[in-house]
């Protein structure tokens, strides 16, 4: 890579880093406890995923959220201790644990989801309809462009292995 191309690549990386920082700060996602809650961002992500996918095994949860297995394990243990998540052995494979939200977990997840929706509503209510459409288009474009370069681990739910 010649010097000019290297400088251009460094500028591109800097621009992406700046955008990431802007996004995280704009939606206050860097706060240790987002939405003025008692939960970390990782805990909120786990609660949301469990609401969407009940009876999920930890390996699939780690894959879906792209979290390190050890970090996810500590997060799940904390949520179990807080009474928000329960775990039970799989009937099909007693070596595996299935995770679900408890009644309290559902209540907390619903509260957090409502706070997030209110924050987003407050944000988009300041935009025109055309600006909202532009934003949605840009978000879709970012997803499309990064989907190929930031490949996710694929999960095969039939045999519970990462592909």
Overall number of domains:
1
- What oligomeric state best describes the polypeptide chains here? single chain
Number of strands: 5
Pick out the low-confidence regions.
152-163
Separation, N- and C-terminal Cα atoms: 33 Å
Explain what this protein looks like in three dimensions:
The protein is mainly alpha-helical and 163 residues long. It has one domain (32-149): Orthogonal Bundle (Arc Repressor Mutant, subunit A). Helix content is 61%, strand content 10%. The protein has a 3-stranded antiparallel beta sheet with strand order 1-3-2. A two-stranded antiparallel sheet has the order 4-5. A hairpin with a 4-residue loop joins strand 4 and strand 5. The two termini are 33 Å apart. Residues 152-163 have low confidence and may be disordered.
Using brief descriptors, characterize the structure shown.
61% helix, 163 residues, 5 strands, mainly alpha, Arc Repressor Mutant, subunit A, 10% strand, globular, 3-stranded antiparallel β-sheet
Topology summary:
Elements: H1 3-26, H2 41-52, E1 56-57, H3 58-65, H4 69-81, E2 85-89, E3 97-101, H5 103-124, H6 129-149, E4 155-156, E5 161-162
Antiparallel strand pairs: 1-3, 2-3, 4-5
Helix pairs in contact: 2-5
Kindly summarize this structure in a few lines.
61% of the residues lie in helices and 10% in strands.
């Amino acid at each position: 890579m010649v010097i000019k191309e290297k400088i251009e690549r460094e500028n591109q990386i800097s621009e992406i880093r700046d955008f990431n920082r802007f996004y995280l700060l704009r939606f206050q996602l860097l706060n240790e406890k987002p939405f003025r809650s008692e939960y970390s961002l990782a805990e909120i992500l786990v609660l949301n995923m469990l609401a969407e996918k009940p009876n999920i095994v930890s390996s699939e949860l780690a894959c879906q959220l792209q979290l390190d297995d050890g970090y996810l394990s500590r997060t799940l243990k904390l949520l179990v201790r807080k009474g928000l998540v329960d775990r039970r052995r799989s009937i099909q494979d007693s070596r595996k644990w299935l995770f679900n939200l408890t009644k309290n977990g559902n209540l907390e997840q619903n509260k957090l989801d409502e706070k997030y929706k209110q924050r987003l509503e407050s944000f988009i209510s300041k935009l025109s309809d055309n600006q909202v459409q532009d934003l949605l288009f840009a978000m879709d474009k970012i997803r499309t462009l990064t989907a190929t370069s930031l490949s996710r681990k694929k999960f095969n739910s039939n045999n519970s292995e990462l592909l």
